[in-house]
Amino acid sequence: MADDLHPRKPDEPSSEGVAGAVVGYLLAGIVVWGFLGWLAERWFGLPEGIGIATGMMVGAAGAIYLIMKRLGT
Amino acid sequence: MSGQVLVAAGLPWPPAVGDFFPPNVAGPWVTKFTIMVWLAVALLIVFFAVSYRSPKLVPSRMQWVADSIYGLMRDSVAREQMGEVGVRFAPYLTVLFSFIVLTNLFGIVPLLQISPNSHIAYPIVLAAVTYVLYLSIGVRKHGFFKYMKMSLILPGIPWPMHILVVPIEFLQNFINRPVTLAVRLFANMFAGHLILLVFTVGGFVLLASDNIFIQATSFFSFVMAILMAFFEVLVALLQAYVFVVLTANYMGTALADEH
Amino acid sequence: MSVLAEISGNINSIGYGLAAIGPGIGVAIVFASYIQSSARQPESAGFNRTWLVLGFALVEALALFGLVLAFALPSGS
Questions:
Q1: What are the two backbone dihedrals, phi and then psi, of residue B55, each rounded to the nearest 5 degrees?
Q2: Do residues C60 and C25 make contact, with C-beta atoms less than 8 angstroms apart?
């Protein structure tokens, strides 16, 4: 074949790297901010479960933002 | 009811974590796993030494196999993930891949029937080597502070988002990568061995009951054990490939230039 | 009333198992549609990659919620 049918841009991340990065960023975001939310719940005496839930939501949102910035075009 | 069958048959049912620790061979330092790892290393050294003893341009069969493994690692793993500088690391990736495939396949070889990777210590060592490797490559190429800045701070986002994003980046780059690398390999090998234990020992437990219909279902249990053994081969190869590809990818991102 | 049979263990694992059904099907649908669209029109593969990553991340987030909560919540069998 004279021409490459699917030319890859030289800087495009490989597919295994993308999959590993997505799962890794999501897990890290949920764990870090869920833990911080749980700490905040114990510190401020909030009702049971609100801290960890909001922490996980914020962490997941931050992780998705980070994924789109790093891996999207 | 299962307890009464257990007393009658004397079988280790249900399978527990204690089944993963066979009795020691010689003192607390030489166990079955030690011998298995020595055996894997010996096999690898003998195989690669013999197949490259007098390399010809038209390869003999064993040299062709060794060439194919090395070619696979160099072309589709090292060159694709790390670019042209990755060819330097292709020998290490080849040996890593072969070692993990061999120790994973020990899970279904008769007489050896457990994989060393089902104890968390062995995947931890392999992942620790990868961790030190990709950190030292990144620091040596970019300098320590520049490497930290490159991996933690993302250009082009408003500064309040940095407070949200930097802890996530730190956890992902420096803690998540080695831990998930080790735990992925360990969990797959542990679960595979546990499934084989359940179906094989469970087949014998069903065979030891009094009812003829229950004894007939032990046939299906043994058939499932055979199918799961074939599935173990696929999982062994796939997990070794994923480990090596992710290692190459982490090294590639450590070597990458800034955007 | 006497106890006839008893199941013991952690109920968090049942919760995680139920929570993993939806995202499993969801990720499969996302990747299946990317593969089909790339097969019908290969020039769109690069453009669709952004949406592939975004869709996968959103669906996988729910599965990871289940995984983290299965370990983080206190166990009461």
A1: -70, 135
A2: no
Q: Are B13 and B201 in contact (CB under 8 A)?
A: yes
Q: What DSSP designation does C42 have?
A: G
Check: CB of residue B207 under 8 Å from CB of residue B221. no
Cα dihedral: B110, B113, B115, B121 (round 10): -140
The nearest alpha carbon in chain A to C54 belongs to A68
Tell me the chain A residues in contact with residue B253 when contact means C-beta distances shorter than 8 Å.
17
Distance CA B184, CA B181 (A): 6
Residue B220 carries which side chain, given as an amino acid letter? F
Taking 50 as the pLDDT cut, the residues of chain B under it are 1-7, 259
B169–A63: do the CB atoms touch at under 8 Å? no
ipTM: 0.73
Cα distance from N-terminal residue to C-terminal residue, chain A: 29
- For C14-48, write each residue's pLDDT tens digit: 999 999 999 999 999 999 999 999 999 999 988 88
Tell me phi and psi for residue B26, to 5 degrees.
-145, 95
Distance, CA of A38 to CA of B211 (rounded, Å): 54
3-state class (DSSP) for residue B235 = helix
Task: Give the nearest partner residue to B176 out of A28, A33, A59, using CB atoms.
Answer: A28
- List, for residues A19-53, the tens digit of each pLDDT value: 878 888 888 889 889 888 888 888 887 777 788 88
pLDDT surpassing 80 at residue A16: no
Residues of chain B in contact with residue A67, where contact means CB-CB under 8 angstroms, are none
- Is A6's CB within 8 Å of C42's CB? yes
Which residues sit opposite B28 in a β-bridge?
B26
pLDDT at B4: 47
Residue B73's φ and ψ, nearest 5 degrees, are -65, -40
A63: Cα within 13 Å, side-chain hemisphere = 34
CA of C15 vs chain A CAs: smallest distance (Å): 16
What pLDDT score does B1 carry?
43
Interface check C76 vs A, CB under 8 A: no
